[in-house]
Amino acid sequence: MLDLRFIRENADLVREGIRKKGQSFPLDDLLALDGERRRLMQDADGLKSERNRVSEEIAKAKRGGGDVAEKIAAMRETSDRIAALDARLREVEERLERLALMVPSMPHASVPYGRDPDDNVVVRRGGPEPSFDFDVVPHWEIGEALGVFDLGRAAKISGSGFPLFRGVGARLERALVNWMLDLHTMVHGYEEIAPPHLVLRSSMTGTGQLPKLEEDMYHTAADDLFLIPTAEVPVTNIHRDEILDGADLPRKYVAYTPCYRREAGAAGRETRGLTRVHQFDKVELVKIVRPETSYDELESLLADATRVLDLLELPYRVIALCTGDLSFAAAKCYDIEVWSPATHKWLEVSSCSNFEDFQARRMNLRYRPGEKEKPRLAHTLNGSGLAMPRTVIGILENYQTRGGTVRIPDVLRPYMGGLEAMG
User: Fold this and answer.
1) CB of 322 within 8 A of CB of 202?
2) Which residues span the domain enclosing 12?
3) Beta bridge partners of 366
4) Is the peptide bond preceding residue 196 cis, with omega within 30 degrees of 0?
5) Is 178 found in the same domain as 88?
6) pTM > 0.90
7) Which one from 51, 276, 290, 307 is the annotated catalytic residue?
8) Which residue out of 261, 317, 362, 366 is catalytically annotated?
């Protein structure tokens, strides 16, 4: 969330940032509530000071044997006014807090301006250019034919949008997870985390999923817990309400988890095969850093994520999201997309985002720059390293052969018992 003082003193800047993100927000309502809150506090503080002063006068008068009945009656009236002001103040503060949680983060100055994904900017391309002398089979056909997954039986069990990997497909998923974790821990220097898959409402609020995106989340009403949409939520919340030692920053964490998303706002989008599913495996990267280094850390995070595709030798591109395509919480974001030669589309496999202090303020996540210095809000970043379904799509479609088999990328063969191909 944004600092209320910042909003108050930079209302036009915030209004412009909201406009650039293509989002709507009743900023004037928030400013009015903030103004009322400050007036109520000032009025209540004035009356409390008066009550304290008169209370001393009453005590002094009593010791002298004076008549204090009139003053006591006046103070009772003052106390009633204070109680009414305090009650109204609590009401205003609750409304203000709810509204403040809905203010989007401000886009960084380096983010290209645009209204929608058509205005995103291709930063670079990587991986070998695909070349085929036969018609490429889409992943949902070759995957079913080779027994990689069984989407029909998955739908029988859970409904549409839930994958069921089996045999060599389940082994491929496990190989990808283990290899990515080894890469990020042993080469890139992240600490591995195995977090809970159900989190409190406060954790979802801390990273910005709530209250804005609640309709996209799976909620267990009896316990008021949420299935995680990404490991970003539990991992970033590890240090909620803590003050970290600045000497220990950056903190770099990696976690594998299943992820659960209702995708309530995704109606009409591509849903065939593994392209858009409600449950999927993902390896997530999270960083907690000093503000002055956060944009260098974003570039480093992006390099760690794209390294996965470089080693898999899959064609990909990096996109700088425009202001209108940024998420609610992100100040800057790069998407990494793998090429689908069967559909001639680029498919997102990772989003690498810098949230600056937006999440940290919601979580009260701070660090102490030096021994005697005041705590400051940290900056948080995350990115997928990578999401499995579309990585599997990339492998099935880019590594398929004329004979209907799918070659295993070289880096994965040691994790698959030396298997060279599926089929």
Assistant:
1) no
2) 4-100
3) 243, 377
4) no
5) no
6) yes
7) 276
8) 261
